[in-house]
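Slide 14.
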Amino acid sequence: MTEKGLTTLNIKKLNKSKVYHYIYRKKATSKLQIVQELEMGLSTVSQNLRILEEEGLIERNGYFDSTGGRKAQAIRIVADFRISIGVGILKNMFHMIAADLYGNVICTDTIALPYSNSPGYYRQVTEKIREFIARNCFEERKILGVSIATQGIISPDHEKVTYGKIMDNTGMHLTDFSRNLPYHCHLEHDSKAAACLELWNHPELDSAVVFLLNRNLGGAIITNHCIHQGNSMHSGAIEHICIDPEGALCYCGNRGCLETFCSVDALEQEAGMSVKDFFQRLREKQSAQLTENWKNYLDHLAFAIRNLNLVIDAPIILSGYLASYIQEEDIDYLSECINLKSPFSLNRKEILVGIHGQYTPAIGAALFYAEQFLNGI
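Slide 15: predicted structure.
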């Protein structure tokens, strides 16, 4: 192929990509809008729309209001043209979700299954994943891949867990799953997966500190619009910041880690009841003791946020299971505690709360394949 021919081909691919991504960003648009905003010729836009439609990537769905002439057709991407599967593995259960190209969750499921580093366990998980896909009638060709979020530090090549004290899953390997699945597979740390979701939901953020408020506490650092991994992949492990050297024993073997104060397990242990019951009684103001338990939790969380904000001057994102229980009054209290003793105030609007609850890591994991697909268009 001549240099001129290669250049022409590249330009065609670039134009196709520009048109698709413009439609993706706008959610719904018209041919005339594309022509005007991308400054492309009408024939070029028409040709690319035809190609994208023939490939099944876009659809014409509905009409815009008339401005005096013929109504313009609304052009959208086909959001479920491809589907990503996300799995979030915990000690006693695992979550499954299916997400479209916008990251919208199509369906979810939770399976009660205690973790065991054994072939039988991995076989059961992969069988349930295949059943989940079949039950929701997803064609195999539509599945981009299965991305698995687990508790534990992941190797740089995302092939295995190198540190897994919580679940005792050190050595868990991607092939434990992929050998039983006919799809591409990916392995991710649950906290980093949560950060992926929050970054997806807040694309305007350059930097942030993510607190994953799950049964076990987790964290992640976002810098320069990327998730910071670190030399050994343990950047953001805020759960092991020491709050009290004489405090309770953490699963890592040390005492007084933030994990022992701000995990869901720690809150339930102090309150003597499940989180669901705790918040129901707390909001109904049934117990002064529960109010004190919650205040104690928020005080320790504020202490950690205040100190981390001195190191990373950026918004704070409270994500995960517990985030769905947090109310505006809790954010107000946190903000007051943070700023009471800090030389630099943290704006109340810079404390963000995630909205996906317990499914956060699974959804964040699924976005790996959605993003990969979109980057390839």
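Speaker note: The chain has three domains: 3-77, 83-194+360-375, 203-358.
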